[in-house]
């Protein structure tokens, strides 16, 4: 936006509660690399699970949907530029907040009072969760605006999404160390969410954004995230099919909006699929449609193929994440320990200095006891998992021989 007239036009657009696509003339040399950044989730929202009443103006009058006034930004300081992403619930633009380049997510308002209530509740949940959790591997929340439009302002990462990045180098694979470092970034972000009682429910490469140096990733899009409580029941079929945990489905088709129990281990399953992608750089359940992939995972207990090129230790970590029984899946704290343990077993890079090699050897020696730090219950769990996977492999070999 190079002229005051353009800025005033876009600013007026925000205040009037509508967008004029012709006014989005802000140019950015990184626009192609920013495509799909902070993309909104494309699956059905689970709803808030609480009753709400609607005022005469269609806004929510419920304390659960109240947004802390301290996180609200002045809409007059927001300037909308080029659209960089779009999902089922809104659009994401590159823009400015004051003198800062940001990502601006504008959520749909709804076509009628009932839909408006649901979408405003979803917006309030997303804002409240984003504003209370902070981590180096979570996209930084800057603020929100609820009138005249529902807007979430966050940091704009100049890198592309993990999905786009993997696609750009396919069929080549990531360096294993880089893949594991990406996995650790994701696991740390998820561990932070789970420590705050938040289930993301839509963990996938589209929602993972690379930093400018392409050496780290950050988790974005809390659009489907929910707070986890002991008694809460949540909407099934939430998320994106190829990465969804089997317990999000039912052998009997659920009616729209019907609820069922699940917990934060659905994120662990999704992480297992993402970790497999990082290691193989292949699309999970390739050759299948989204629904075929969901059916195969949920009802036939199929998982992406683990080739013999993947080390048994790494294969075990992946398998433990996507095992059928959610209670058998590790926590993200345990996943971080296992990944670090495996990472330290790798030889140092060929171009590393003698000091770096010595440090790697010291770290490897220090990590030998990491798995032993797990509780006795966890060790029994992982021992059982190893036996379980071995039996499955034996059965597959027997079937192939037959």
Automatic annotation (TrEMBL):
ATP binds at residue 105. SMART domains: S_TKc. One of its GO terms (biological process) is signal transduction. Residues 21-43 have a biased composition (Low complexity). It catalyses: L-threonyl-[protein] + ATP = O-phospho-L-threonyl-[protein] + ADP + H(+); L-seryl-[protein] + ATP = O-phospho-L-seryl-[protein] + ADP + H(+). One of its GO terms (cellular component) is cytoplasm. It holds the Pfam family PK_Tyr_Ser-Thr. Residues 17-48, 347-375 are annotated as: Disordered. InterPro entries: Kinase-like_dom_sf (IPR011009), Prot_kinase_dom (IPR000719), Protein_kinase_ATP_BS (IPR017441), Ser-Thr/Tyr_kinase_cat_dom (IPR001245), Ser/Thr_kinase_AS (IPR008271), Ser_Thr_protein_kinase (IPR050167). One of its GO terms (molecular function) is ATP binding. Transmembrane segments: none annotated. The keyword Phosphoprotein does not apply. Residues 78-343 form the Protein kinase domain. Keywords: ATP-binding, Kinase, Nucleotide-binding, Serine/threonine-protein kinase, Transferase. Belongs to the protein kinase superfamily. This is Protein kinase domain-containing protein.
């Amino acid at each position: 936006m190079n002229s005051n007239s353009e800025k005033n036009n876009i600013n007026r657009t925000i205040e009037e509660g509508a967008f004029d696509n012709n006014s989005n003339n802000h140019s950015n040399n990184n626009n192609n690399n920013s495509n799909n950044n902070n993309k909104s989730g494309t699956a059905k929202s689970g709803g808030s699970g609480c009753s709400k009443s609607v005022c005469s103006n269609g806004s929510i009058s419920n304390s659960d949907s109240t947004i802390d006034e301290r996180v609200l930004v002045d809409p007059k300081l927001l300037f909308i530029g080029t659209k960089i992403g779009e999902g089922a619930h809104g659009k994401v633009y590159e823009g400015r907040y004051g003198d800062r380049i940001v990502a601006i997510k504008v959520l749909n308002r709804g076509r009628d009072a009932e839909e408006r209530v649901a979408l405003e509740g979803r917006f309030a949940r997303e804002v409240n969760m984003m504003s209370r959790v902070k981590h180096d591997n979570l996209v930084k929340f800057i603020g929100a605006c609820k009138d005249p439009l529902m807007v979430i302002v966050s940091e704009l990462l100049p890198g592309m999404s993990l999905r786009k990045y993997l696609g750009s180098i396919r069929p080549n694979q990531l360096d294993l160390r880089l893949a594991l470092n990406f996995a650790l970034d994701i696991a740390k972000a998820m561990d932070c969410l789970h420590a705050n009682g938040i289930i993301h429910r839509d963990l996938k490469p589209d929602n993972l954004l690379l930093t400018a140096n392409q050496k780290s990733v950050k988790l974005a899009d809390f659009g489907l995230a929910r707070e986890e409580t002991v008694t809460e029941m949540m909407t099934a079929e939430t998320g994106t099919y190829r990465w969804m945990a089997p317990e999000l489905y039912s052998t009997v088709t659920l009616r729209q909006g019907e609820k069922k129990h699940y917990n934060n281990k659905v994120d662990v399953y999704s992480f297992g699929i993402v970790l497999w992608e990082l290691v193989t750089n292949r699309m999970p359940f390739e050759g299948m449609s989204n629904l075929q992939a969901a059916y195969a995972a949920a009802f036939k207990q199929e998982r992406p193929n683990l080739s013999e090129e993947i080390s048994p230790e790494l294969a075990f970590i992946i398998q433990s994440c996507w095992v059928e029984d959610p209670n058998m899946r590790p926590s993200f704290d345990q996943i971080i320990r296992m990944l670090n343990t495996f990472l330290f077993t790798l030889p140092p890079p060929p171009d590393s200095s003698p000091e770096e090699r010595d440090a790697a050897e010291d770290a490897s020696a220090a990590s030998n006891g990491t798995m032993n730090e797990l509780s006795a219950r966890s060790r029994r769990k992982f021992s059982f998992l190893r036996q379980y996977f071995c039996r499955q492999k034996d059965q597959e070999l027997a079937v192939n021989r037959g």
